[in-house]
Amino acid sequence: MSHAVPVIAIDGPSGAGKGTVARRVAAALGFHTLDSGALYRLVGLSALRDQVALTDEPALVQLTLALQLRFDQSPTGAQRIWLDEQDVTEAVRSEAAGLRASQVAALPSVRAALVTRQRACAVVPGLVADGRDMGSMIFPNAALKIFLTASTEERAQRRLAQLQAQTTPADLATVTADIVRRDHQDATRAVAPLRPWPDAVQIDTTGVPVDAVVARVLQLAVDRGIPTSRG
Ligand code: DC
Q: Could you tell me the strand order of the sheet in which 201-204 lies?
C-alpha cells in the first residue's frame, strides 16, 4: 500500500545534490518539500543556543518536541528558516551545524521525536522529502524512492562552491575531511544508518548535470503513476 498522498523520498549522503534535486522536482510537480536534514541541524543549533550538551538525550528530546519552526520562501524564491522567530537560514547551513546535526541524529530518541513532525508534511498534492531515512523509516510506502550518490571528491567540490557562494571561508581539504567524517558517522550509527534501500533507484550524480538528474526523477515519477500535473 502506498500513501494516499504521493511521496517521493530522496536519500543519500551529504553533497549528493538531494536538496537541489528535491526542490526542483517539487517545483515541477507543484509538491511540498521536506528538508529533513534541516530539522536535525535545527536541533543541534537549538541545543547550542540553550547550552544543552549533545550527550544529554532526555533534554535534547524535550528541546526537539518544543522546536518552534517556520520555513518560508523569500521574494526571490529562496527558502528561509526561522527558529523561535529568529532567522537562522545561514547558521543552519554552516559546516559546524552539519556536524552537530550528525551527532544528534545518531540518538534514537531524538529521531523518534521528529517522526510525527516529518510525516505531517505529507499533504496534498504531494511531498518530495530528502534526507537519510525518508524511504525507510519515515515514508516506507513512498511511491518513489531515490538514493542519490556522487564521488567524495565531487561532493566536496560542490559543498566548497556552496560555502564560497555564501562567502564563508573554506578550503577543499577541510570540507573533504568533514564529509568523510559525517559519512562515517551517518553510515555506522545503530539507528537508521545511511544506506541505499533495496527498493530505491540509485542514481550516481558524479559528472551529471542537475537538469539531467531532475529529468530522470520526473520520468521515474511518471513511470510510477505519480500525478505530475498541477490540475
Ligand atoms: O542533509 P543534511 O546534510 O542537511 O543533514 C545533516 C545531518 O543530519 C546529516 O549528517 C545526517 C542527519 N540526517 C539524518 O540522520 N536523517 C535525515 N533524514 C536527515 C539528516
A: 32-35, 127-131, 7-11, 144-149, 201-204
- The reply to whether 64 falls in a domain is yes
Task: Give ∠ CA 114-115-118 in degrees, rounded to 5.
Answer: 85
Tell me how far apart the alpha carbons of residues 194 and 106 are, in angstroms, rounded to a whole number: 11
Q: Whose CA is nearest to atom 3 of ligand 1?
A: 14
Convert the pLDDT of each residue in 118-159 to its tens digit: 999 999 999 999 999 999 999 999 999 999 999 999 999 998
> In the predicted model, what is the mean pLDDT of the chain?
92
Asked if the structure places residue 73 within a domain, the reply is yes
CATH number for the domain harbouring residue 102: 3.40.50.300
Q: Which atom of ligand 1 has the smallest separation from the CA of 40? A: 8
Q: Is residue 229 part of a domain?
A: no
**Residue 229: its pLDDT value, please?**
63
What are the residues whose beta carbons fall under 8 Å from the beta carbon of 106, sequence distance 6 or more? 185, 189, 190, 191
Residue 231 binned pLDDT confidence (cut-offs 50, 70, 90)? very low
Contacts 24+ apart (CB under 8 A), 81-88: 81/38, 81/42, 83/42, 83/45, 83/46, 88/42, 88/45
What pTM was estimated for this model as a whole? 0.92
Placement of cell 527558502 in the chain: 79
Domain that holds residue 164: 7-223
Pocket of ligand 1 (CB under 6 A): 14, 36-37, 40-41, 98, 101-102, 105, 131-133, 182, 186
Provide the number of structural domains found in the chain.
1
